[in-house]
Amino acid sequence: MSSIISEGVLGLGAVSTAFYLKEIHRKYQEKNDQFSTCPLLIYQIDFQEINPFLPNQFEVLIPKLKETLKEITTLGIAKLLVPNITLHETLDQIEIPLEICHPVDLTLKHLEQKAVSEVYLFGTLHTMNSEYLKSRFLAKKVKVLQPAESDQKWIDDFRKKVYQGNETLEEITFFRSLIRKYSEKNAVVIACTELSVFSLKENPSCIDMMDLQIEEFLK
C-alpha cells in the first residue's frame, strides 16, 4: 500500500464493518511490524438507507450508490473495499471511477487457480439461490450447488442472529459442522459477511469471499 492514503472502506452494518476492519489490521500486522496498523480511510454511511432495498431494488440502490461513490472519490480514495457481498450486484451496474475489491471476481479467479469446478454457496437465502451468482460462476465453468432447503433456512436465520449479535455457542458450532459436512464433497464458498465471522479459516475447502477481498485490498 502507498504511503499516501488512497485505500478506503465503505462503512455499512456495524458488525460486518467492524469485523472487516479487525481482519484488515490483523493481516496487515502479520505482513509488517508488531504494532503496524493499516492506513486507510473509512466512509461511513447509514446502512438503514441501503439495507431495506437489498438485494435488488436497483431503482433505489443505484442512485444512492452513485452519489456515495461520487463523494468517496472526492476524498482521494482510489481503491475501495465494500463489506457487503450482495451489494456488488448493484455496483456491477454502475460505472465506477475507482478500483473495487470485487468478491465475485476474486473468488472466480481463486477457483480457476485451484481448478475447482463445483462449489456450495453459503450466504443469505437470496444469495444461495441467486441467478446473478449462478450465471457469473457458470460463465467461468463453475457449477453452483445449493445446500438442502432446511440447511439454507438455518444458515439464513443464523446470519441474521450474527447481524444482531444474538448468536449462541451452540449455533456457531452447528454452523461450522455444516461447513465441514458440505466441504467433504465440494468447496464451500462463504458469500455473506456475517457468516465470515465464524467461517473455518483453517479449512482449505472453505473459501471466504471476505478473505479474498482483504488480501486484494492489502496488495
What's the pLDDT, averaged over the residues? Answer: 94
The assigned structural class equals alpha/beta
- Amino- and carboxy-terminal Cα gap: 6 Å
Helix content: 40-55%
Largest sheet: 4 strands, parallel
Report the order of strands and helices.
EHEHEHEHEHHEHHEHEH
| C-alpha Rg (nearest Å) | 17 Å
Percent of residues in beta strands: 5-15%
Number of strands: 8
Total helical elements = 10
Overall form: globular
Strand ordering within the main sheet: 2-1-3-4
Low-confidence stretches: none
Write a concise synopsis of the structure shown:
This protein is of the alpha/beta class. The protein has 10 helices and 8 strands. It has helices spanning 14-31, 58-73, 88-91, 103-113, 125-128, 131-139, 149-164, 169-183, 193-196, 209-217, and strands spanning 7-11, 41-44, 79-81, 99-100, 118-122, 143-145, 187-190, 206-208.
What does this 3D model show about the protein?
The protein is of the alpha/beta class and 219 residues long. The protein starts with 6 loop residues before the first strand and ends with a helix.
